[in-house]
Each structure stands twice: as C-alpha cells, then as structure tokens.
Design brief:
By secondary structure, the chain is an alpha/beta fold. The protein is about 40% helix and about 20% strand. Helix 1 crosses helix 7 (about 185-200) and helix 5 (about 130-145) crosses helix 6. The N and C termini lie close together (about 10 Å).
C-alpha cells in the first residue's frame, strides 16, 4: 500500500504551511515535505549576491530531486529531505528523514507547476488568498523569523514575489482538485480537504 500524496500550492504566505500542519494533526503519521527545502544551493556565490537571486522562479528549485523522492515514498521507501537555511540562502549539511505513511503532504509555491510532479499527486489543493493579505503575513514572518528588514521584504515582494506569483503560481489553480480560501478559518479549509480525501477512491492508500 503506497502513500496518498497531497499537494498544496498557492502564493507566498497564503496559508499553505498552516493548512498542511492542520491536516497532519488530523491524519496521524502524515509527513510534510516542504518545496522550500529543495531550493538549489547557491553557496558558491558571495552572500550579498545570493540575496539577489530570484527565488520566486521555478528554476530556483531542484524539482527533479523532489520528483525522485516522491517516487521513492510512493513505492514505500523513506528518503532524506534537504534542510535549507533561509538566512544563508543555501542548503545545510543536514537532512530530514521522511518515512512512508498513509499520507504525505507536499506544500510549496510551485507544488502544482511541473507536470511530472502533478502526476505524482493523488489530491491537488490550491490555497487562494488576497495579495495584500499575503504581503502583510510575509512581512511579519520574514522580519520575525528570517532576520529581514521591512524594506527588503517590501522590495523583494514588489520585484519578484508578486510577479512570480502572477506568472507561475496563480495559473496553476486550474490544476487543483480543490480550491480553498487562505482567509477563512483554518478549520473550514481543513475540513474541506478532509472531506475531499474521504471521497477520493485512493484516500486509503494505493494509486
């Protein structure tokens, strides 16, 4: 019996991670895999130059490695998820072991972007949230958790985050099996996904 893989996409700070956490609480033994962990390492260039890399473009992610990992977990094998440092804009030497279970959640901006990854997903979810709400959440998060200044967050949002969402993220909503609001109470969106899983023929395992 293979894992039922759930993909959760949506713009930055739309509420993907919180939805994934809530679902994992409701589905014991579920592993969460973050697409953010698969940013390509840019440790070979100076830190100031790393800050200028466009991390809101699909090319910044090593999706091929994630695809291999999802193939492994779909076959019932564990894999080592990279650990990425946002402060240094590079991968660390550590990894996090993801064990196969009944459910695996993959969440990230581009979770529905690549056809090869979409083909691995049994349930595809898109979190739709107003851009202004996303910006205010991102501002609070990046200043508190990632050591950023408000000015740098605002500049990045205007230059790459919002354009990247418009070009590469918003269009993937059409691939979703289910669209939920990132502004409604989490219990509402969580319940909607759980209801969809209950109805899905593969929700109890098997592809």
């Amino acid at each position: 019996m293979s894992a039922h893989i759930i993909g959760i996409a949506g713009p930055s700070s739309s509420g993907k991670t919180e939805l994934a956490k809530q679902l994992a609480q409701k589905l014991p033994g579920t592993s969460i895999v973050s697409l953010d962990s698969y940013y390509r390492g840019v440790g070979h260039i100076p830190l100031e130059e790393r800050k200028k890399v466009n991390f809101d473009h699909p090319d910044s992610l090593e999706w091929e490695l994630l695809h291999q990992h999802l193939q492994a977990v779909a076959a019932g094998r564990a894999f080592e998820e990279p650990v990425y440092s946002f402060a240094d804009h590079t991968r660390t030497s550590r990894t996090r072991r993801i064990e196969p279970g009944d459910f695996v959640i993959v969440e990230g901006l581009f979770a529905l972007y690549w056809p090869e990854l979409r083909a691995m997903l049994d349930t595809k979810v898109y979190v739709r949230t107003d851009p202004d709400v996303c910006f205010n959440r991102r501002l609070a998060r990046d200043v508190a958790e990632r050591g950023r200044t408000p000015e740098s967050v605002r500049e990045q949002y205007q230059q790459t985050v919002l354009p990247g969402a418009e070009w590469f993220v918003y269009p993937t909503m059409k691939y979703a099996d289910l669209v939920v609001s990132g502004e409604e109470p989490l219990a509402t969106s969580t319940g909607a996904v759980l209801n969809a899983l209950h109805k899905a023929p593969a929700a109890t395992g098997g592809r």
